[in-house]
Design brief:
- Strands 1-2-3 form a three-stranded mixed sheet.
- The N terminus is likely disordered.
- About 75% of the residues lie in helices and about 0% in strands.
- The chain is globular, with a radius of gyration of 23 Å.
């Protein structure tokens, strides 16, 4: 028996099931006029608490009659909640550049720790967050994870209001911003259950890009708000307070409009099985190179601009570091879904190899042109680097469910589609967690390079070497072996 939850879902076609997809109508029962319901696909069952049973995105009849509308609605609210997670995750990368103007006196090493600590905690939280969707439901966990963002937002507002706040307290509050980084794993694991394999690349790319956009919007909006509302100096507490209303809207929207899927199952045993898959570790390495570069450079970009071009600090509203740094995360975020879409058409491995080659060449060009001290050239090259990492993000992430469906040990031993999907969901979360450690590694490598040599250049050469290594790994495992075994490209 189905339960009509239309009243709970609200009205309006953009956020509700359209008429043909509502429980009790011929479409939802699988009896559309002029069509025959697929006999092996039970009708969707809508249960209290916004739970949906019998979900099968691979069934074309179910997908076209009801599934696409439901999936799109959940994707929209997932993007918004994840967007705010990235906002909170990246707040400290913007705030630290303005700490001296607010009366704080921290060393360069301490500044880098404030930048990198959210990434360290966020990457670690992605591991338990991966299990939250199967345990509590995608809709339910989105509500909780959104509300958790209030803690670091309010905490930041309170601690930056007093220049006497100890560094240890600042570091703790920066660590709490890692809640925002954890959101990515649960959001992506949730959305992968809603979409069929043929559309996962685009859907996961949109979900990730919408989240990644939070880094860009935060770096654009925060400097404007803290400057315009300042009285004599920057109003740093507004960097936290300004997001509280949006967080509350995201939690309400998830409660009102999102759904839980009974088929979204996963457990510790599944993740342990994923950890035993060699492909998980290979893909984690590649994801460190793509997403790790994106989130790592997003965190340090404002400081790099300020350190390399201090003369620009008096131009525009605030500093150039705070008024233009948003362009990096912006172009990287916009490129991500297109990386996923191109991977759908051309193969994720080919796209990933091209991304790493581009990142290596662009980084070398940036190093060799630094002596020119041309700010606009530096900016353009870094924007190209962000774009290449964005394409790589989408392509690499698209590879994961395909690999686990076709080339994993489970798939080769005859595991069912549902089993390989659950394995892929666990892998997506775990790989996203490992890759996010790049957001900690990149600032710390730059800090170590600056401490040891007084320059960031050795660190950038190290990044070039890493990109070349990852390019070779991707080619060897997913292009050369695919050709040798006639297994097709991922």
């Amino acid at each position: 028996m189905t339960v009509d939850r239309t009243a709970d879902a609200g009205t309006g076609n953009s956020l509700d099931l359209d008429e043909a997809a509502r429980p009790g109508t011929p479409a939802s029962a699988g009896a559309q006029p002029g069509s025959t319901r697929t006999t092996d696909a039970p009708a969707l069952e809508f249960r209290p608490g916004r739970w949906i049973a019998n979900w099968d995105a691979e069934n074309k009849e179910q997908w076209e009659s009801a599934g696409r509308t439901i999936a799109r609605r959940n994707l929209n609210w997932s993007i918004f909640a994840e967007f705010l997670g990235f906002v909170v995750w990246q707040l400290w990368s913007i705030v630290v550049v303005q700490l001296p103007a607010a009366g704080f006196n921290f060393s360069t090493s301490e500044i880098f720790w404030l930048i990198s600590m959210p990434s360290l905690v966020g990457a670690t939280l992605r591991i338990p967050y991966t299990f939250m969707v199967p345990r509590f439901g995608g809709r339910n966990w989105t509500i909780v994870s959104a509300l958790l963002l209030l803690i670091p937002s309010v905490g930041l507002a309170l601690c930056v209001s007093n220049p006497e706040t100890p560094f240890g307290v600042m570091l703790l509050v920066a660590a709490l911003a890692g809640f925002g980084g954890g959101n990515f794993a649960s959001s992506m694991a949730n959305i992968t259950f809603f979409y069929p394999a043929r559309e996962k690349g685009w859907a996961l790319g949109l979900n990730a890009a919408g989240g990644n956009m939070g880094a860009a919007v935060a770096q654009l909006a925060v400097p404007i708000v803290i400057t315009l509302l300042a009285v004599g100096t920057v109003n740093l507490p507004m960097a936290g307070w300004m997001w509280v209303p949006f967080i509350l809207v995201a939690a309400f929207g998830a409660w009102k409009f999102m759904d839980n899927l009974t088929s979204a199952k996963g457990d510790v045993a599944g993740s342990v099985a994923a950890l035993k898959e060699p492909h998980l570790w290979i893909m984690a390495l590649l994801y460190i190179g793509t997403f790790g570069s994106f989130i790592g450079f997003a965190g340090v970009f404002p400081k790099l601009i300020k350190d390399y071009f201090p003369a620009f600090s008096s131009i525009g509203v605030g500093t150039v570091a705070l008024s233009l740094a948003f362009l990096g995360p912006l172009v990287g975020s916009l490129a991500r879904p297109y990386g996923g879409r191109m991977a759908d058409r051309m193969g994720g491995a080919r796209m990933t190899v091209a991304a790493f080659a581009s990142m290596a060449i662009i980084t070398l060009t940036m190093i060799w042109t630094l002596p020119l001290k041309n700010f606009w050239l530096f900016l353009v090259l870094f924007l190209m680097l962000f774009t290449a990492s964005g394409f790589g993000n989408g392509a690499t992430y698209r590879m994961i469910p395909i690999i686990f469906a076709t080339s994993s040990r489970a798939a080769k031993t005859g595991a069912s589609t549902v089993q390989t999907q659950r394995l892929a969901s666990s892998a997506l979360g775990l790989i996203s967690a490992i890759g996010a450690y790049g957001g900690f590694v990149i600032p710390q490598v730059l800090n170590a390079s600056n401490t040891a040599s007084g320059s960031y250049t050795p660190a950038f050469y190290g990044f070039v070497g890493a990109y070349v290594l990852m390019l070779v790994v991707c080619w060897a495992f997913y292009i050369r072996n695919a050709n040798r075994n006639a297994m097709g490209h991922v």
